[in-house]
Write a structure and sequence with these properties.
The structure holds two protein chains of two kinds.
Chain A: H1 15-19, E1 35-41, E2 47-53, H2 55-58, E3 63-68, E4 80-82, E5 85-86, E6 105-111, H3 114-122, E7 125-130, E8 154-156, H4 165-173, E9 186-188, H5 194-199, E10 212-216, H6 219-225, E11 228-235, E12 239-240, E13 249-254, E14 257-261, H7 270-278, E15 285-288, H8 307-316, E16 320-322, H9 326-332, E17 335-336, E18 339-347, E19 353-363, H10 372-383, E20 389-396, H11 411-429, H12 433-439, E21 447-451, E22 457-459, H13 465-476, H14 478-484, E23 489-490, E24 493-505, E25 512-517, E26 523-526, H15 536-539, H16 542-548, E27 555-558, H17 577-604, E28 612-614, E29 617-620, E30 623-626, H18 627-637, H19 652-661, E31 666-671, E32 681-693, E33 699-709, H20 716-735, E34 741-742, E35 747-748, H21 753-756, E36 767-772, H22 790-807, H23 819-827
Parallel strand pairs in A: 1-16, 14-15, 19-20, 26-27, 33-36
Antiparallel strand pairs in A: 1-6, 2-7, 3-6, 4-5, 8-9, 8-20, 10-20, 11-18, 12-17, 13-14, 13-16, 18-19, 21-22, 23-24, 24-32, 25-26, 25-31, 28-29, 29-30, 32-33, 34-35
Chain B: H1 16-25, H2 33-36, E1 55-60, E2 63-68, H3 75-82, E3 101-104, E4 107-110, E5 123-125, H4 140-148, H5 157-170, H6 176-182, H7 193-209
Parallel strand pairs in B: 1-5
Antiparallel strand pairs in B: 1-2, 3-4, 3-5
Helix pairs in contact in B: 4-7
The chains are: A alpha+beta, B alpha+beta.
The structure holds FE2/S2 (inorganic) cluster (2 copies).
């Protein structure tokens, strides 16, 4: 591919609307006769509605309709809930008569003003029966403890039928495929014994029975032959996603269709999930979402609570706006599951990891099973390439807000759990921190995860982690800082440096792209990508301009409204978009170039192959045609040229859109069917220098460097922005962000920004360097992979490692590493004093 | 490296204190609870007679706008729902995030925490009022965002831009650290603070060049 646009900075076409206040987010739409809705939410962590009388509220002035759980469809099994998570029959339904967490919506009231709706909520006559609850996952495993759901406390996957879907699924996925997905899990009662708890030392995760397991190699042999074995327990915290825009939504009905204005990480994929949640047909949905104020995984795609204004609107026969407050968002706005893990890791004296034996508990919240603990394990197997590994896990239900994927789900936790162990080993063995990571780094088609039924592990498309470590070492000035900084005290200031390696999924395949070369010569590109701020909505379509060799200014991107005929697109999650949608754009551009050549040959004579597309023209032996002329000719020719006939393999969503657009010009449309050998993973290595004030416990990140191995650079400013934003999220997990639950009453103590403490501009590193090795992924025609997620774990790990370098390896065993943890440890000779096994404190 | 500095020591000229004083002086810190939550005492009862006029005039973006407000209506809700100015965002509705920042007599204020009737006769500027009304030419700080492709989802952007415009009125030539402190009452969850600060510094530069 040429290189006029890819790898260059530009201004996204939506920026002027954003900076002048014209950009419309969900709450910015107004419709005549719009009602407002307020929710009645559960005051208890687990309860049953015993008595509910809405008559008094319904009779109040301004009140138009009340929606209760009885109006909601059954649980929407099959709806997409995040990265590789599908809802089950035990999923949430938007409203409930058995709330499983404080803040869970019970009913919703629509009235002419929000004040009247709030008044009516007050007038609801409701009585709850309190049910047993648990907010701490380890507590939930104690003999005789309460269960978060009446059915039990743990998600357990039934064993796969012998020789069943595992093998065939793997065959269908081809070589290097990810592990096959096991059968859907069920909620069961699962307790450890008193002896399990008694056998664990203080601060150690007890090793009761675990439900899930995978492995490769011989772990017991690996640990036996190791020169050094470390056995550490670490707790990563649960944190809310807290996008700045809450999940506000507005809906109305017209001619049998529901027009939904909402906030989502995918314009097109929200249609099917929302239809399931609202119990309507996908063809009844028009999804409008031009701007989304952040998602970070919490809006994949959209939110189940979108069903509330939609169904209220139907009931009240008027548009309904549901504004979600910041405090409501704490409860219903999703959260990252905390993972508590115990890892035994063996090292040779040269620093090579011989084996990892990992036990992990996922603090799952009350609803569908999240994969974070499992992904933490596969991430570790990839990042540090142990010679053997066994992972055992339990997904424990708690009466805390529902968890879903948050930027680097499980990946961030895995890096945070393993990095401190690697750092400690390097110090014990006298090996440089960068060196020990290079010794264990993935490279080339590196294997990861369990042994598959074919006897082999899955593997990645490529890995240039050693190159990234070398580049970072130089830019960060690691060796200089090591001499000047590492473990040095200056008065009351202790300084330290740290480095971490963080992989995460970097791309999916198989989506569609669709554009039209119009008779005026402009290129109209249809985009189903959600506009949540990553710029990939526009970045990926620059492939079209690059390949057709036209100025970017000649392209118009149509987005944000499913009535505008958009193609089937990935969700913007799991750092898929830059990889998946540049492939699709490449395929559609290739198809358009072929059509241009054929049209030129038909019109001007000669062989199609003899014609070249360049400079906005198609030229060859018989002369040249402008794109405008070719578009006109395409309409005359019809068939495949103007979209009346489209490739069979397209998704039906794309086919419907193409049909509506057929005849408007030359259509470029295709599905990405390019081969791929291996799983696309991206990597970021992080380097941090911190200063700890030993009198106040305050930590300042002085320098931070993030280096990506994320394929070819698509948009340099976008890359740096993703590296910085992701690093800040990791910094927040290392230093500031937390939840707090009253363990006795199961109620949230920290519900707002000033309690949960997401980082501010003053927490940002004083000096930041963000860059990439800029080496193409060999398994995708554009060479491009995603970057959004791996920076999170890199900063989380590197900053915790730097703090440990400053004040000692044994000062903390949980995050965030707060001032009180540091000060009490310092007073205790650098040894931890804090509790390790209780979550949300 | 000097150029990349974000935040170090608190600069002496920090304007945050003045900002906070401004908010307190207006006597309007507590905000939205009347609007959103259980304001039973207000409903159905006349507000204390004569305490607050409901028909008021606000000067917004250079225009006098006559509107009907309830005593408990915040400036943010009034701008968004009575005047159609939805560029001012609500991120928390309780003085935590700065998404709702507007200028009142050139001072940045959290409009979610200012009651509308308390700013009668004051000059209110929102994100919609920054560009030149006749030519459409962007304000230098807005232009800084365009020049640097600042922000990601941009939900925080109107607040950051207004806070910067206000801060630059007291310190037109700030260092990166000074500006970071000046706008530290604004929260961004996409957290690309580095590029935000670069864009805002570019805006300051644009403003000085005129
Ligand atoms: S909305 Fe006003 S400060 Fe957050
Ligand atoms: S850019 Fe998304 S909140 Fe600031």
């Amino acid at each position: 591919m040429a290189n006029k646009l890819i790898g260059q900075n530009y201004t996204t076409p939506d920026l002027v609307a954003k900076v002048t206040g014209k950009a419309k987010y969900a709450e910015d739409y107004r419709v005549d006769g719009m009602l407002f809705c307020k929710l009645l939410t559960s005051p208890m962590p687990h309860a049953r509605v015993k008595r509910l009388d809405t008559s008094k509220a319904l009779a109040m002035p301004g009140v138009k309709a009340i929606l209760t759980a009885d109006d909601m469809p059954g649980a929407a099994a099959g709806a997409t809930l995040g990265e590789n998570v599908q809802s089950t029959a035990q999923a949430e339904r938007g409203l409930t008569n058995e709330p499983l967490y404080q803040g869970e919506p019970i009913l919703a009231i629509a009235a002419t003003s929000e004040l009247e709706a709030a008044e009516a909520v007050e007038a609801i006559d409701i009585e709850f029966e309190a049910l047993p609850f648990v907010v701490d996952p380890i507590e939930a495993l104690r003999p005789g403890s309460a269960n978060a759901r009446t059915q039990g406390n743990v998600w357990v996957r039934p064993p796969a039928p012998a020789g069943g879907r595992g093998a065939s699924g793997d065959a269908a996925r081809g070589r290097g495929a990810a592990p096959p997905s096991p059968p859907p899990p069920q909620v069961t009662v699962w307790k450890w014994t008193e002896a399990d708890f008694a056998n664990a030392k203080e601060g150690e995760l007890p090793l009761g029975k675990f439900s899930d397991e995978w492995s490769f190699g011989n772990v017991d042999d690996g640990l036996k032959k190791a020169d050094l074995v470390l056995d550490e327990t670490f707790m990563t915290q649960s944190t809310g996603h807290q996008p700045l825009e809450t999940r506000t939504a507005m809906a109305y009905w017209q001619n049998g269709k529901c027009y939904l204005h909402g906030s989502t990480q995918s314009t097109v994929q929200t249609v099917a999930s929302f239809a399931r949640w609202a119990g309507i047909q996908p063809n009844q949905v028009v999804m409008i979402s031009e701007y989304t104020g952040g998602g970070f995984g919490s809006k994949i795609p959209g939110s189940i609570f979108m069903a509330i204004p939609a169904l209220l609107s139907k009931k009240a026969n008027a548009p309904v706006m549901m504004r979600i407050t910041r405090e409501e968002e704490h409860f219903i706005g999703r959260a990252r599951p905390g993972v508590i893990a115990r890892v035994k890791a063996g090292f040779t004296k040269d620093g090579r990891i011989t084996a990892i034996d990992m036990y992990a508990i996922c603090d799952n919240g009350p609803y569908d099973a999240q994969g974070d603990a499992r992904t933490a394990g596969t991430t570790i197997s990839l990042a540090y390439q142990p010679q053997a590994m066994r992972w055992r896990g339990l997904t424990v239900l708690t009466n805390t807000p529902p968890k879903v994927s948050q930027r680097a789900p499980g990946g961030m936790q895995g890096v945070g759990i393993m990095e401190p162990i690697l750092s400690k080993a390097a110090r014990r063995l006298g090996i440089d921190q960068v060196e020990i990571r290079k010794i264990n780094a993935p490279s080339g088609k590196a294997p990861f995860g369990p042994t598959l039924p074919n006897g082999k592990q899955a593997y990645v498309t490529s890995a240039f982690v050693k190159e990234a470590l070398d580049k970072g070492r130089e830019l960060f000035k690691w060796d200089e800082k090591k001499a000047a900084f590492s473990g040095k005290r200056q008065g009351t200031k202790a300084r330290g440096i740290g480095v971490a390696v963080s992989p995460f999924a970097g791309g999916s395949i198989g989506f569609d792209a669709l554009f039209i070369i119009k008779p005026d010569g402009r290129i109209q590109i249809q985009s189903g990508i959600g506009n949540l701020g990553t710029h990939s909505l526009f970045d990926v379509h620059r492939i079209v301009a690059e390949m057709l060799d036209v100025p970017w200014e000649q392209c118009d991107v149509v987005f944000g409204n499913t009535a505008k005929n958009l193609p089937w697109t990935c969700v913007s999650a799991g750092s898929q978009t830059a990889h998946a949608m540049t492939r699709a754009a490449h395929a559609a551009s290739t198809s358009a170039i072929k059509k241009l050549q054929e049209i030129a040959a038909k019109s001007r004579g000669g062989n199609p192959e003899a014609y070249k597309v360049a400079g906005g023209k198609v030229s060859g032996p018989g002369g040249s045609m402008t794109f405008a002329q070719a578009a006109q000719k395409a309409i005359e020719l019809g068939g495949t040229y103007d979209g009346h006939e489209v490739p069979e393999e397209l998704n039906n969503f794309t086919k419907t859109s193409a049909k509506a657009l057929a005849g408007q010009g030359l259509m470029g449309v295709a599905k990405d069917t390019y081969p791929r050998d291996g799983q696309s993973q991206s990597y970021v290595v992080g380097f941090a220098a911190v200063e700890v004030d030993t009198e106040t416990g305050a930590v300042k990140v002085l320098d931070y460097t993030a280096i990506g191995d994320v394929g070819r650079i698509l948009n340099p400013r976008g890359l740096k922005g993703q590296l910085f934003g992701g690093s800040m999220l990791g910094l927040g997990h290392a230093m500031t962000q937390r939840w707090a639950y009253d363990q006795h009453y199961g109620l949230a103590l920290a519900r707002r920004f000033h309690h949960n403490r997401p980082p501010t501009i003053l927490d940002a590193p004083t000096n930041f360097i963000g860059d990439a090795v800029d080496l193409a992924d060999p398994e995708t025609p554009t060479g491009i992979r995603g970057v959004g997620e791996p920076p999170v774990g890199a900063a989380y790990g590197a900053i915790m490692n730097a703090i440990a370098d400053a004040i000692g390896d044994d000062a903390f065993k949980r995050s965030p590493v707060t001032a009180d943890i540091l000060l009490t440890s310092l007073e205790n000779g650098g040894k931890r004093t804090h509790e390790t096994l209780t979550a949300h404190i | 490296m000097e150029d990349n500095k974000m935040s170090e020591e608190t600069p002496q000229s920090a304007s945050r204190r003045n900002f906070i004083k401004g908010v307190i002086a207006a006597g309007a810190v507590a905000s939205s609870s009347a609007y959103l939550f259980r304001s039973t005492t207000l409903h159905g009862q006349p507000s204390a007679a004569g305490a607050v006029e409901r028909l008021i005039t606000l000067n917004v973006n250079g225009q006098d706008r006559r509107i009907d407000v309830m005593p408990q209506d915040t400036l943010a809700m009034t701008l968004r729902y009575k005047l159609g100015l939805t560029g001012t965002k609500l991120g928390c509705d309780r003085a935590e995030c700065g998404a709702c920042t507007v200028l009142v007599d050139d001072v940045p204020r959290y409009s979610c925490s200012v009651l509308a009737h308390t700013v009668r006769g004051r000059k209110i500027t929102t994100i919609e009022g920054l560009a030149d009304a006749t030519t459409g030419k962007l304000h230098p700080v807005q232009q800084g965002v365009i020049d640097e492709q600042g922000f990601q989802c941009a939900f925080c952007m109107p607040g950051f831009v207004m806070a910067t415009v206000g801060y630059l009125k007291t310190n037109p030539n700030p260092t990166r650290q000074e500006l970071a402190h000046g706008i530290s009452g604004n929260l961004c969850r996409c957290q690309d603070y580095d590029k935000i600060l670069t864009a805002m510094m570019r805006g300051a530069d644009n403003a000085r060049k005129g």
